[in-house]
Amino acid sequence: MQVCTNFYKMLSVWGFLTFITTTLSAQNRLQQFDDRIMIDLAEHRTREKTGYVRFISDTYRYGDVAVPAGLLVAGVISKDRNMRENAAFIASSTAISYGLTLLIKHIVRRPRPFENIKIVPVYRAASSSFPSGHTSTTFSTATALSMAYPKWYVIVPAYLWAGSVGYSRMYLGVHYPTDVGAGALLGVGSALSMSFMRAR
Fold it and tell me: Which InterPro entries match (predicted)?
């Protein structure tokens, strides 16, 4: 009986060590993937492209505010209740995404790429890296807008904009690909979680 108990203990320890080793190995491979992409992007920057990408990155501030504000104003002027409700839906989704991003950044505290690898960022962003706040809020705005107005001429530009902002964060050297991917998922999830506010 004692032999069986000891065997199961050893098996449990071995299983736990195998799990930890596999997890660390996967994380290490993921970090190497992140690092390779960041180094490649940094090595292929040009002055012209950098100026354009910086502009795209900065549009998140205006898009996240202008989309719901524009709908609200248009809804008030035209006395369209659905448009006003959709404005509240989009604004709430983006606000939730922003709040969750700040919370996760505070918990995870992942260093920025330029703190870990030898790349020169276009500028040095503050706070921590995971997830990308620019990406989470733009994907939340794009998803909520696409849900409110499911037309191709709304969906395609909205996601092109959000995707471009996500790419810009990597190009500028301030976020890893996994930061951007997590931000996109968080943004989409935030919009989906607030879908009960969408006008029917």
Answer: PAP2/HPO, PAP2/HPO_sf
Fold classified for 34-197? Vanadium-containing Chloroperoxidase; domain 2 (1.10.606)
Which residue in the block uniquely carries the two structure tokens 């260093």? 111
Residue 23, token pair as written in the block = 């997890």
Boundaries of every domain in the chain: 34-197
Report residue 128: phi and psi, to 5°: -95, 175
pTM to 2 decimal places: 0.84
HSE-up of 110 (CA within 13 Å, CB side)?
22
Structure token digits, residue 61: 């501030």
What average pLDDT values come out for the chain (200 residues) when binned by 10 residues? 45 41 58 91 92 94 93 94 95 96 93 88 87 96 96 97 97 94 96 90
Q: What is the DSSP letter of 126?
A: -
Write out the two tokens for 182. 């997590």
